[in-house]
Amino acid sequence: MAWDYDVIIVGGGGAGLAAAIEAKRAGANCIILEADTKLGGATAQSGGVFYAAGTSVQRAAGIDDSAEDMFQYLMTLNHWSVKPDIFRILADESGPTLEWLIAEGTEFLPEQVTFGGIEAKPRAHPSHGAGTGIAETLINTAGALGIETALGTRVERLLLEDGQVIGVHAAGIDLRAPSVILTTGGFGNSPEMIARFFPTAARKGDWTWAVHRRAPYILGDGIRLGEQIDARIVGHDTGLLLPGSNAGGKALEPFLPPWLMLVNREGRRFIPETSSYTISGYALNEQTDEVAFAIFDERALVEASSDLSYLDPYGSGIEIPTWEEPMLRERVAKGEIQSADTLDLLCARIGIDPKGLAETVRTYNEDCALGVDSHYFQKLGKRYPVSTAPFYAAEIRAAVIAVTGAGLDINRDCAVLDSHGRPVPGLYAAGEVLGVLMGKRYGGGGMSIGPAIVLGRRAGIHATLAARSAAQTA
Ligand SMILES: Cc1cc2nc3c(=O)[nH]c(=O)nc-3n(C[C@H](O)[C@H](O)[C@H](O)COP(=O)(O)OP(=O)(O)OC[C@H]3O[C@@H](n4cnc5c(N)ncnc54)[C@H](O)[C@@H]3O)c2cc1C
């Protein structure tokens, strides 16, 4: 058969660019087909945090860490319910892949390495220039290697012959290649896909939105293309949901101010308020009606709201709305934040148990006076008792889709598996299009870009090897 390319890469975000770079370096004649008018995908819009263990950047920061510790952490956090072989690769290759990115030109500063989730040693590596920085590094390398790209080219279907993928159909033409790599990202911009594969998010109705909104083709195309060849779709309902207050417009606010008291419908605190998003969204969804309320008083509104230190721990520069006084007053005036002169009245307005809240406030205020957290035993920053009327309550729901979890299943070579668990000849995948990267808990900030680039590189190499052996047998 006459091939147009050795490897066709569908989607030019982080995973696709990394796949193309490795394919090209391994000698493949390859092309990236990208639906958007620019490369980068969600990767370029992201915070650019990369989760990795045992890196030179950690060592420079005095952090002694290992791939083994990362593997044990991720597996334990996920109750060992994720694929161990894939997570072993993610852990083992995280450090070498970060070093590879550094060699390609991305900068990671030791002083910025921080906790991404609830790991014992900091593993989140914020990159200089955030997601744009990583995307630009990859785009520049791809350009220097002379990798062909076709922008504005949305792949509509796979070409099949005798159960093998032999190319794609896009922009009215067939392109043939013995290896095709799907790196089309997640499905955060598709309400239909969210309803099918992320029902916990879909249940939030108008509250639900995805951080992918500036990457318009994050529509789940990879799942649709996979379904064409009976690919196994896994990771149902496992995406990461961030807390959101649905106020001030639909804005990204992954870190709520630490001076809020967070309670459920029973009026009880249910997590330390400063919890990482590895914990917070999941815990929120376990509460009655999957809702919580951020309670604060007039003094906190005036005095605490000027503290913005919680906003962007990764220094990503991503626009995040503040809970500063003018915005809070505006939201109160619009009725987005409820207010009342007594706590009982506030409870009646938001529909929570007044007795429960009164008891929680009593111990919370005692703790504030003593500077302790007798409930969760956390070290507290400055806290504010709930004591000065008027009192305020903002409704919080875990409705903001940060990463979609469902998608294609793969083996260690990144070959896509069919519904019987058999590799589909000629088809590979990497990145957020996969359903094997998320389990019961998100590992922490950086656990999407890291795996996308780790597996993107791997898919590029294995797709090239397969293309070579297809050429030899032709
Ligand atoms: C605001 C924001 C902040 C984030 N912050 C972080 C962070 O700090 N750390 C982290 O680990 N994760 C973060 N994430 C998540 C992370 O960015 C993504 O999970 C990851 O970058 C996905 O990479 P990818 O290559 O799989 O997909 P993408 O980078 O999204 O690339 C997919 C590409 O495929 C293209 N495409 C789709 N369908 C087709 C088709 N049919 N034909 C051709 N092309 C197609 C898309 O246009 C897109 O360019 C963030 C995400 C966002 C949006």
In short:
The chain has 15 helices and 19 strands.
CATH architecture of the largest domain: 3-Layer(bba) Sandwich
The CATH class name of the largest domain reads Alpha Beta
* Terminal Cα span: 7 Å
CATH fold-level name of the largest domain: FAD/NAD(P)-binding domain
Low-pLDDT residue intervals, each spanning 5 or more residues = none
Question: Which ligands occur here?
Answer: flavin-adenine dinucleotide
Lateral strand order in the biggest sheet = 5-2-1-9-19-18
How many domains make up the coordinates? 2
Going by CATH, the homologous superfamily of the largest domain would be FAD/NAD(P)-binding domain
Nearest-integer average pLDDT: 93
Helical percent range? 25-40%
Q: Which band does the percent of strand residues land in?
A: 15-25%
Choose one word for the global shape: elongated
Q: Structural class of the secondary elements?
A: alpha/beta
| Largest pleated sheet | 6 strands, mixed
By DSSP (H or I, 4+ residues per run), the number of helices equals: 15
Radius of gyration: 24 Å
Annotation, overall tally of beta strands: 19
